[in-house]
Design goal:
Layout lengths: L1 H25 L5 H11 L7 H25 L2 H9 L1 H5 L4 H22 L5 H4 L1 H6 L4 H26 L3 H40 L1
């Protein structure tokens, strides 16, 4: 896959960067670190410049984020309630009030969540979906997504340019970072699941 990504970048330049980053946001398994660091390296031997590469990558990030936001916005509260009150929700012992509290929490703290999650692999893309579900205002969503994406893109692109022909070392560094972040995410998810199950157990025993 890496060879295909590099070929697209070599062929289409800024447009290729924006397109690949957009696709990477929609399909997180595509490695953004390869796209961004190689794009940074390209500024050392092509006519492309650092600001142009950063802007192209950020435009792609926004396009992908908007797509996922719109996808999330399709999931109305009625559809969520139908899911929770259906067989799946009952099997998982989901409570619609817990869902409403979660969305309410996102409404109050979503701005910071969208920004911070842009630095976490996989989640950096998918955070746009709950933002859409919670109907987060587009102004703050665009602002937080732009700022987070701009900073993330700049860091990787700058490192790629600084590393030059050794850009793959920068890719490996961020691959290790991604793996460590995924482990942390799994641990937090397990803790969250245990707390959720414990709360559900207490509700059942106190009923």
């Amino acid at each position: 896959m890496n060879d295909l990504l590099v070929e697209i970048l070599n062929t289409y330049g800024y447009l290729g960067i924006a397109f690949l980053i957009m696709i990477e946001n929609i399909f997180p398994p595509i490695p953004s670190e390869v796209i961004l660091t190689f794009s940074g390296f390209m500024t050392t031997f092509t006519q492309m410049n650092l600001p142009g590469v950063v802007v192209s990558a950020t435009v792609g990030s926004l396009a992908g984020a908007i797509f996922l936001y719109e996808l999330g916005s399709v999931l109305s509260m009625e559809k969520i309630q139908s899911l929770v009150n259906g067989p799946v929700g009952k099997a998982l012992h989901l409570d619609i009030h817990d869902i409403e509290k979660a969305i309410s929490w996102f409404d109050s703290k979503g701005n910071y969540t969208v920004f911070l999650c842009r630095f976490i692999p996989i989640v950096r893309s998918l955070i746009s979906i709950p933002a859409g579900i919670a109907q987060m205002r587009l102004g703050p969503f665009f602002l937080m997504t732009t700022l987070g994406s701009l900073l993330w893109n700049f860091i990787l692109i700058f490192l790629g340019a600084a590393a030059g022909s050794s850009w793959q070392k920068a890719v490996q560094y961020f691959h290790n970072y991604s793996q460590a972040a995924k482990i942390v995410l799994v641990l937090f998810s397990l803790v969250g699941l245990l707390l959720f199950l414990r709360r559900q157990f207490k509700k059942k025993t106190s009923a």
